[in-house]
């Protein structure tokens, strides 16, 4: 089978983008690809665009894909790959289509995700007149780098139960932006000396609704200010979480950090149970008015 490019798919099959929600997954390496695809299928995405430099091996594609996963050729390791991928899809998609973007070894969670689909959740969010949803990227990591040198363990995943904080976000003139905060914590905070300053935030607008002129920026924010807010002015809204091995993988792989980090585990490490309730219990996800 030909490994069709993202550009050609968007040109030849724009009709596939007529209904959402759509997931855009950037496959950067071979780690946990099958788990990532299966997880987002279970969430209920109508279409998953799995972007990879090389064709994905058939065994990583879940049997229940039923045409909902399209593997497309794309340079996922290039600079600002997420920007180029998301904006290419936005250029073709009709208005008001809900989308999500993330990477392999990342897993979207939202309140009550075990019993409700992402479409049901976004339908409620739309009724609250919201066009985007804030998510926190919660770092996952293996408890033992000797047993798991790539820092990834699905069955023994850990995360930080504390150490998260928010700072006010200001514009270029120093004025505080309305309902926008910079969130920090996890491995990016504990090992910040190995993380560039412009990549230490853990907030990401990973769920958003298409509209004309909308552009994703390199810092995971959008060019429309309201998309970057954590809630509407009148009450708290839903938020989501992205449980991610991505930072742990990078710290375990890069020569500078790999030589200095013996373990990611510390006194505030907590076993990850792969349940949305656990994330809500620790304040890493907000159900808002959705019960």
Question: How would you describe this structure in keywords?
Answer:
single chain, 291 residues, alpha/beta, eight-stranded mixed β-sheet, two-stranded antiparallel ribbon, 8 helices, 12 strands, 22% helix
Count of helical regions: 8
The strand order across the widest sheet is 3-2-1-4-10-6-11-5
* Structure classification: alpha/beta
Biggest beta-sheet profile: 8 strands, mixed
Average pLDDT, all residues? 95
- Counting DSSP E segments of at least 2 residues, the number of strands comes to 12
Shape: globular
End-to-end separation in angstroms reads 45 Å
Order of helices and strands: HEHEEHEEHEEEEHEEHHEH
Could you name the ranges where pLDDT drops below 50 across 5 or more consecutive residues?
Answer: none
Oligomer: single chain
Describe the structure.
The N and C termini lie far apart (45 Å). The chain contains eight helices and twelve strands. Helix content is 22%, strand content 23%. It is globular and about 50 Å long. By secondary structure, the chain is of the alpha/beta class. The mean pLDDT is 95.
State the gist of this model:
This protein is an alpha/beta fold. The protein is 22% helix and 23% strand.
Describe the secondary-structure layout.
Blueprint: H1 6-12, E1 22-27, H2 33-43, E2 47-52, E3 69-73, H3 81-92, E4 98-103, E5 106-109, H4 118-127, E6 132-139, E7 158-160, E8 165-170, E9 176-184, H5 186-190, E10 203-209, E11 240-244, H6 246-253, H7 255-258, E12 269-271, H8 276-281
Parallel strand pairs: 1-2, 1-4, 2-3, 6-11
Antiparallel strand pairs: 4-10, 5-11, 6-10, 7-12, 8-9
């Amino acid at each position: 089978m030909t490994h069709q490019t993202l550009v050609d798919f968007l040109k030849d099959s724009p009709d596939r983008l007529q209904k959402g929600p759509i997931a855009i997954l950037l496959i950067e390496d071979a780690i946990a690809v099958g788990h990532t695809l299966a997880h987002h299928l279970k969430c209920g995405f109508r279409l998953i665009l799995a972007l990879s430099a090389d064709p994905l091996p058939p065994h990583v594609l879940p049997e229940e894909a039923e045409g909902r996963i399209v593997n497309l050729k794309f340079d996922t390791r290039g600079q600002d790959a997420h920007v180029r991928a998301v904006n290419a899809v936005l250029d073709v998609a009709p208005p008001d289509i809900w989308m999500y973007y993330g990477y392999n070894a990342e897993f979207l969670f939202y309140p009550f995700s075990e019993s409700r689909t992402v479409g049901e959740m976004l339908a409620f969010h739309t009724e609250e007149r919201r066009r985007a949803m804030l998510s926190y990227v919660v770092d996952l990591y293996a408890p033992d780098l000797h047993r798991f040198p790539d820092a990834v363990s699905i069955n023994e995943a850990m995360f930080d139960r504390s150490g998260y904080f928010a700072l006010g976000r200001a514009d270029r003139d120093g004025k505080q932006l309305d309902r926008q905060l910079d969130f920090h914590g996890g491995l990016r905070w504990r090992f910040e000396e190995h993380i560039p300053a412009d990549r230490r935030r853990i907030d990401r607008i990973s769920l958003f609704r298409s509209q004309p002129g909308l552009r994703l920026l390199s810092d995971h924010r959008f060019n429309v200010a309201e998309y970057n807010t954590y809630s509407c002015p009148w009450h708290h809204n839903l938020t989501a979480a992205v449980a991610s091995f991505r930072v742990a993988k990078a710290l375990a792989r890069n020569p500078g950090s790999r030589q200095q980090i013996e373990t990611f585990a510390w006194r505030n490490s907590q076993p990850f149970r792969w349940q949305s309730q656990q994330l809500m219990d620790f304040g890493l996800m907000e159900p808002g008015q959705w019960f």
